[in-house]
Amino acid sequence: MSNVLIRNYTLERAKVDADDDGRTIEMQAVPWDVEAVVGPDTVEVFDRHAFDAQLRAANRLKLTLGHPRPGQLITDSLIGGLREMESRDTGLWVRARVASSRMAGEALALVNDGVLDEVSIGFVELRTDRADRDGVRVLRRMAARLDHIALVPSGNFGEQAKILAVRDNDGPALADLKALAQRLT
């Protein structure tokens, strides 16, 4: 996972599909043409077509609770899988299915309670245009490969990437939520 870059976004708003069983999350995972500070004097922007090559392969991508740490397997933080991806006017929209595991249920409860309110992506850069603007390095990601999407407590892009739909009727016990919140900090 050494060449996978990480970027974070805020979850947008909750909307529940009446026919849903409460384990599907819809979110804007990446905003288009929004600058985010990613280093000293460095900003990053994703082009609208950066992930076009993967739009039909959503089912190959995973949803995680936080990002796997170096040397850690993605399965240690796995909570679900993506079902759909679509390039919309404002950004990359995804629909993910949350597993029925204990950790996934805990994560879903934290999302429902607004504790986990941001999205982060792990990606590999494929093509980047680099420019200098008044001493600021601008990285425009023209093509990239998503590695995974993570639910996180805070991220780089703030209010630009949000959950659009989620609901869970069988939340975990309070002690389980407190333990999970401690693992995330």
Percentage of helical residues? 10-25%
The major β-sheet equals: 10 strands, mixed
- Distance N to C terminus: 22 Å
Written as H for each helix and E for each strand, in order along the chain, the element string is EEEEEEEHEEEH
Radius of gyration: 16 Å
Strand content: 35-45%
Give the averaged pLDDT, no decimals: 81
Question: What overall geometry do the principal axes of the alpha carbons give?
Answer: globular
How many DSSP E strands? Answer: 10
Total helical elements = 2
Q: Give the uncertain stretches in residue-range form.
A: 13-19, 167-175
Number of domains: 1
Structural class computed from helices and strand pairing = mainly beta
Brief description of this entry?
The chain is mainly beta. It is 12% helix and 44% strand.
Describe the protein's architecture and organization.
It is a single chain. With 185 residues, the protein is mostly beta strands. It has one domain (5-184). The protein has helices at residues 102-112, 174-184, and strands spanning 5-10, 24-31, 36-39, 42-46, 62-65, 78-87, 91-98, 118-133, 136-152, 163-165. Strands 1, 2, 3, 4, 5, 6, 7, 8, 9 and 10 form a ten-stranded mixed β-sheet that branches. Helix 1 (102-112) packs across helix 2.
